[in-house]
Predict the 3D structure of the following.
Amino acid sequence: MAASLFAALRGIDTIQVGPVGTLPFASGLLDFIGVHPVRTGRWHPNPWEAIAQLRQDESDHPYAVMTTREMRTAWKQMLAFLTDSGLPYVAHPERNMRMINPVGTVKLTYAVPRSMMAADEALRRRPPCLLVDFAGLKGFSARQIAARLKLHWPALRTTRLPIPALEGELQPERLARFLERRDHCRELAKAIKSRLAGAQAVGLPAVVGLHRAGPHFDLIQRRLGVPLFEIPTLLPSVPGRRLLDTFSRQLPRLGVRTWYQYAVKQAQIRADGALHFRIGSAADGFWVQSRAAILATGRFLGRGLHAERTAIRENLFDLPVHQPDKRGQWHHKDLLHPDGHAINRAGLMVDARFRPVDKDGAPRHPRLFAAGSILAHQDWVRQKCGSGLAITSAYAAVAACAQIPRGLEGTHAP
Amino acid sequence: MAPPLSFIQQREPAGDGPLKTTVLIIGGGVTGTGLARDLALRGIESVVVEKRDVNAGASGANHGLLHSGARYVASDPAAAAECRRESLRLKQLAPHCIEDTGGLFVAVAGDDENYIADFPGLCARCGIKAQPLDGREAREMEPCLSERLIAAYRVADAAIDPFRLALDNMAHAVQLGGRLLRFNAVVGFNLAHQRIRSVVLRDDITGRSQEIEAEVVVNAAGAWAGEVAALAGARIPLLYSKGSLLVTGTRIAQRVINRLRHPSDGDILVPGGTVSILGTTSERSASPDAIYPEIQEVDRIIDQGTAMVPMLATTRYIRAYCGVRPLVSCGEACDDRSVSRGFALIDHGQADDNPLDNFLTITGGKLTTYRLMAEKTADRVCQRLGRGDACRTQSEPLPDTVAGRWTEPGLAPRTWMERGNPGDLLLCECEMIPQAVVDDLVRTLARQGGAASLKAIGLRSRIGKGPCQGTFCSQRVAAYLYDRGVWQDDRGIDELRAFLRERWRGQAPLLWDISLAQAELLEATHCGLFGLELDPVDPGG
Ligand SMILES: Cc1cc2nc3c(=O)[nH]c(=O)nc-3n(C[C@H](O)[C@H](O)[C@H](O)COP(=O)(O)OP(=O)(O)OC[C@H]3O[C@@H](n4cnc5c(N)ncnc54)[C@H](O)[C@@H]3O)c2cc1C
Ligand SMILES: Cc1cc2nc3c(=O)[nH]c(=O)nc-3n(C[C@H](O)[C@H](O)[C@H](O)COP(=O)(O)OP(=O)(O)OC[C@H]3O[C@@H](n4cnc5c(N)ncnc54)[C@H](O)[C@@H]3O)c2cc1C
């Protein structure tokens, strides 16, 4: 998604192929970098300091391959795009923000939806605060969150609200749709307000509206008269859905041809060096030739990589994958081992222009680039850098791509 | 009719003075719980002490095969005959714990022809029925079988649920006045005049120590029997053989399928409700603790199993686990008359050095023969006590209790659908386990004197055993337990960690293809978002 955006912003004729990946799973938090070094588990309040140290310690890390300026521009363009598209995001340029999780832990992240922003302030000041949850929303318990946070935040209270109109189980998306009606928001605000009892901030699960979230959130906050913040939920995640909707609505307006219903079934580098892709749905397909391509196909969940019992492969071009020698080295015996699992650092090795390279360091193809979590030498899960890596490496790959002569010669043949 | 839950009651060790009982049983596996029931039926009071939870040892980490005996006809005919008798008996007395699937023995091209030729005669010698089948018949019965079959026999194997078995044995014992102390490890013995005067326990949850006095002490600690005996100065020469097993995502065959050859790795596929279990291996281990299913074992099991059932090469595996078999090299204290080579009943009163008149050890054996082991041990206990009725477990059916119910695959979903209460949310969507089942388990655990940990709930239900590998149900159950006031403070974090770590042991060796993608989602959620691998301190503070 990020690569398509950056390409469109540069006026590159772009096709984006592929079904929605892990975006609906995303929490809505855009991490840049939270932890370094992984082994010590040290959180960094200032991401730029962490990046500087990371570049020294891990010279192979994708963050060490791009410039600070590229990173700053990438973030600026991404946040401006989201905000202009009606999904306002906020970030403090020089520091990570604190966010609450459904298990009651606190995490540092870089950019958050405006609807989550007040959590950062609340966590710092710890005023009397009311955490709200909803009967029927599984895996989200205000009591659980408060039980842990109370150790540092005694003025935390909880309340559970029934939603009588919705019987039985409340999927987050169902609740979010329900809260897209102004009268429902007003009722919710009234119910919360009657339980405020002096609370100076209110937190609730991230379910206030799906498509037009902003105005509804504002309405509730206005009626409460105190800062309101959303807390990420278990999957399926509404903030992830909002991101997905925003991209899929806005990218076509910027000229990107989005083919989400298709996947690339086969990729070839022909003798003349042209890149050819067979694009298809389940049954039929057609070939597209492109001048350049960016592989942002993700890892195992996204299906960019595939693991057999003995080895890991890249799915489309069978590119060389940096990986441990044996399956026995993929994972630690302890899920939570402080070093992180070696397999998470497996992936595509790239050159300074984000082109996948062979073992000897030569790019496989002059106009084939890679970005996102498929890259080797990073552990986004442990370093807390998932979205940041995707956004900044997409920007860097597009920038490199833009340096080659323009034009995308698409030839469709049924 | 199932006895009500209140039969599973618990008396905590009192604060002052040692606890007293007639027989103290160390180990809450199928042997210890079976012995408690056997004694209770003879009118003898007992207490079972278990350092972790019921079936924490081999009884919770085996293949679940109720042996017809055919597997042992060549290597151990006495054990084979024992299995034949006991499996028949259990099918009659504990049918709710057993799925009487029947079994096949099959050989494929390349397997030892002599063994195949001898097999029917050996079975006949042990009184075991083995009906010959041709390859086509066998494949009609089990279409998953290889086309390269060269011999097939039909036998009376079956699948048994060891959790239900142990929990029902314990529940019945408690109903008759017995007691269970979970999370209480034996850490020492006080000896006097060639007897155990008292046994020292340490409560794993409170850390408190407690003494307990008994007329007779039975060490039923399975692979830990050597360690326990050593605390009393008694020596049992034990070797440890680790076996690993793999659980498939779906049920592959209706019957038990054995490879017709000398027992070896990866040659049995046992159905277990909605899944199948493939195993096993036999690897010497230096200790009964800190064991893992290793990647090379997993690969060997799959490669071997594939020869019988080709789809085992590509099927999805959802979990691996392992257990330890104690191998006893019997010394002179071993009672050869009353026990077969399958298990060892050791009377420490007959030991040459350090004899202890009121101390017995029962170890080795099989799940299939647990009842017989309990019977022989109880006979010896009664002899020592000079009282007690005759054994009744040979004819008295095992009652079906609630305590064991939720481990049965498919039972929770059925019950949920029958109850049809939309407010009863499904906490585990893979295995369809609703809130009401968790409530039930919390109550049962409270009556057994324990706190409701995620691990204990997982042991008693199918939570965390489905394809999501615990990613979602762990947090859903955690949130629910907070909502119900069962948990307070920041206990949830440690609970989630412990539960996910435990599940991970069984996932890590099987992570390729879809399972790896699932594991990525697990780690993304619990580490990427929740940061469970990090010290949960306020990161800005
Ligand atoms: C549970 C979870 C929680 C997360 N939480 C956070 C968080 O708190 N903060 C944060 O910053 N990040 C978080 N992330 C990470 C983030 O959402 C992204 O997953 C990550 O940045 C990787 O993005 P990616 O675009 O490289 O890969 P993916 O998101 O995996 O995208 C790969 C895309 O390629 C497509 N594709 C693959 N093969 C083909 C093909 N042959 N043809 C066409 N298309 C193909 C896939 O369909 C998919 O759309 C989380 C992720 C998960 C799963
Ligand atoms: C891999 C494998 C596969 C098998 N498959 C089959 C099969 O298919 N069919 C079959 O019939 N048999 C099978 N068996 C054998 C069967 O599982 C065992 O014979 C049986 O479970 C033994 O039960 P037990 O109660 O004697 O020992 P265990 O179940 O090991 O119980 C011993 C208990 O003692 C406890 N304990 C240890 N130390 C202490 C202490 N200090 N204080 C208090 N408690 C303590 C332990 O926590 C444990 O719960 C298999 C065994 C293995 C290892």
Summary: Confidence is low (pLDDT under 50) at residues 1-14, 335-340 of chain B. The pocket of flavin-adenine dinucleotide (ligand 2) is lined by residues B 26-32, 49-52, 56-59, 62-65, 67, 185-186, 220-224, 228, 243, 280, 323-325, 365-368 (CB under 6 Å).
